[in-house]
Specification:
three-stranded antiparallel β-sheet
């Protein structure tokens, strides 16, 4: 009996911890695929964040679909879209940087200047915008741009990082993980519990990761890189214009999901 009392808590943590890690591994594998799907969608849609977010939701749908009919797949996709709208997922564009759209050539200047290494200022549907050219890249100059320090060829590489808050399902382990990752540093060296190295990874409030943990979710991320197949448009890549991500989720955010309807 004594041995059981000593061993049981350790075995409980190991078994339930392994189960939670298996769930996280499955979610990370799904996120890897969904991120690549989002990058491919962005490459053919001028890097539009909203289109990439929709593709991310499609790629993450298998996590929440429980049968193989179309209505259930759409329900699961809409569930991930709702999570994005509530701050539990977003896409970060790593390349091209904002500076790649700097120092563009205006329409008036293009008639007298022939330069293939800079962004272009033009009207799109009647609205002024900045575009990174995508045609004839092998014939364009490879010298670095004045603002970004990268060539026009490098600016046509789309690199994104997708962030996702995955719910923690396993009892006890969910609270244990959150407490470990948000543990405040004990700076009182007179305390018997003084441990300056015992500090969680996510102390700062207002970050995406802390928003995940404050809602019993685990922050995951994945990266993908593809060659642009369409001209990158600045407004399409601007999160304040084209994204439905509102910012990090507040603590105790509750989302009402439509329940699965499977036979």
């Amino acid at each position: 009996m004594t041995e059981f009392i000593i061993v049981f808590p350790v075995m409980f943590i190991l078994i339930f911890g392994a189960l939670q890690i298996a769930f996280l591994y499955h979610a990370k594998t799904t996120l890897n695929y969904a991120t690549f799907l989002a990058a491919r969608s962005g490459a053919v849609s001028n890097g539009h964040l909203g289109i990439m977010e929709n593709a991310l939701a499609r790629g993450m749908a298998p996590l929440y679909s429980h049968c193989d009919n179309a209505a259930e797949v759409l329900r699961a996709r809409d569930q991930v879209r709702t999570e994005i709208q509530n701050g539990f997922a977003f896409i970060e564009i790593l390349n091209p940087p904002v500076t790649a759209f700097g120092n563009p050539i205006s329409p008036a200047a293009r008639s007298g200047v022939r330069s293939g290494d800079r962004a272009l200022r033009m009207n799109i549907n009647g609205t002024p915008d900045t575009v990174i050219p995508n045609d004839s890249l092998m014939y364009r100059p490879t010298n670095p741009g004045l603002s970004s320090g990268q060539s026009i060829q490098d600016a046509n590489i789309l690199k994104i990082r997708a962030h996702y808050c995955y719910p923690l399902y396993v009892p006890f382990i969910d609270n244990l993980l959150v407490r470990i990752m948000t543990q405040a540093q004990n700076t009182d060296n007179t305390s018997p519990d003084y441990c300056p190295e015992c500090q969680g990874l996510y102390q700062n409030a207002g970050t995406f990761e802390r928003g995940c943990l404050d809602n019993d979710r685990f922050p995951l991320n994945s990266q993908a890189i593809v060659r642009m197949q369409s001209p990158a448009i600045q407004s399409a890549m601007d999160p304040t214009v084209s994204s439905m991500y509102p910012g990090p989720a507040a603590a105790n955010t509750v989302i009402a999901f439509t329940p699965a309807n499977c036979p």
